[in-house]
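Review session, final week

We close the course with one last complete record, chosen because it touches almost every idea we covered. It is Phospholipase B1, membrane-associated, a protein from Rhizopus stolonifer with 180 residues. Go through it on your own first, then we will talk.
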Amino acid sequence: MPSFDCPPFVWDDAILDRDAYHLRPHDIKSVVAIGDSITAGFGMISGRPPFSTVLEYRGKVFSAGGDKGEYTIPNFLSVYSNQKGSSKGATLPLSRGKQLNNAVSGAKTQDLNDEMTRLIKHINREYKDIKHEWKLITLFIGANNVCMLCEPPLSQLPGLASADIFEENVRNVLERIRTE
């Protein structure tokens, strides 16, 4: 990422209790992500078969990546404040997250509740100091639900691609984000 030789922007507007209407980039102290393989960075870089290894390149993901030189939201925000929890490096496919990127490749909206539970436990264990700070949370999911529309009905997964179930799962996790 290019370095901009601009003086730091300091804006003291005397607002002590920030709300979402008065939020500034330097108020955001961490970036969190949940979702599917797109958020996990699955296969962003790959070699040529048959010797290629497919990994999840979480440090390069636009929403939560923290690898040096990448154009990511955490790297942009780091110009204003020290970001905590941005993902760096790569993980094996189907891992359960890295830093505050808790996305799981292959996840569907039905898996969001589990991702959120793991994320909350992880924050309470490893990132207690951000619990009451402003966080930017990216929820990026749905590709696997849509892909299920092309599959024949599976008896063990009824309604996997149903719009109503999709909406219910997303609403439930958004409510958990708001309250927990």
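Two points worth writing down before the exam:
Strands lie at 28-35, 134-140.
Residues 145 and 160 are 6 Å apart (CA to CA).
Good luck, everyone.
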